[in-house]
């Protein structure tokens, strides 16, 4: 994962994804990047290292669960599509290339490649295995998918540490997957508390 985090991932033949730290003049040149879309509110320096002119655009998004990415994606899509029309190659980045820029790429695949949210997420994940959109972005992407397709391939479910999308591997030890696990965990906890109370009463 560390190796992937410092690389520029190729999502399609014209769309690329990374964090700010992965951008070097050598990588931009090798990939033929002509346009850069910065979706990080806190990165204002648009002077990228490059041996040739690059068209840049800032869409100032915050990376928190209260941010509504739906308010920004049309502007992102317009920039990407305009660049694609003239044969451009577009790099989308935020600070780490994990949440904001990854979400934009996922939603782009959903709209322009007719992918479900689950398939789009897995597609981007296979190219860059460190992506992890925040909970608010997941809710927005689920709403976006329903508006596009009239159905959802991903849903938010209760996990031990709050609500999360049901896309994570089942072998993650710190997550409880789905409603049944949540219900079982709830009743197991109360049964254990009840047994401890009985034991305490027996010895007092």
TrEMBL record:
GO terms for MF: phosphoprotein phosphatase activity
Stretches that traverse the bilayer: 182-203
Keywords linked to the UniProt accession: Hydrolase, Membrane, Protein phosphatase, Transmembrane, Transmembrane helix
Pfam families from the UniProt entry: DSPc
Name under which the protein is recorded: Dual specificity protein phosphatase 14
Tyrosine-protein phosphatase domain residues: 7-150
Gene3D superfamilies found in the cross-reference section: Protein tyrosine phosphatase superfamily (3.90.190.10)
CDD domains: DUSP14-like
Superkingdom to which the source organism belongs: Eukaryota
């Amino acid at each position: 994962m560390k190796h992937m985090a410092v690389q520029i991932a190729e999502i399609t033949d014209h769309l690329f994804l990374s964090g700010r730290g992965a951008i070097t003049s050598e990588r931009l040149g090798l990939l033929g990047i002509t346009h850069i879309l910065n979706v990080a509110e806190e990165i204002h320096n648009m002077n990228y290292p490059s041996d040739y002119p690059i068209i840049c655009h800032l869409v100032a998004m915050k990376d928190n669960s209260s941010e509504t990415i739906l308010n920004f994606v049309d502007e992102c899509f317009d920039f990407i599509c305009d660049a694609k029309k003239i044969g451009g190659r577009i790099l989308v980045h935020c600070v780490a290339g994990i949440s904001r820029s990854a979400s934009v790429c996922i939603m782009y695949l959903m709209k322009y490649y007719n992918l479900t949210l689950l398939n789009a997420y897995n597609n981007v994940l296979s190219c860059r295995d460190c992506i992890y959109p925040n909970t608010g972005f997941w809710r927005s992407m689920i709403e976006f998918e329903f508006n596009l397709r009239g159905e959802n391939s991903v849903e938010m479910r209760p996990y031990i540490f709050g609500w999360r999308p049901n896309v994570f591997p089942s072998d993650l030890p710190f997550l409880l997957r789905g409603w049944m696990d949540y219900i079982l965990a709830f009743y197991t906890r109360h049964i254990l508390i009840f047994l401890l109370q009985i034991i305490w009463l027996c010895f007092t």
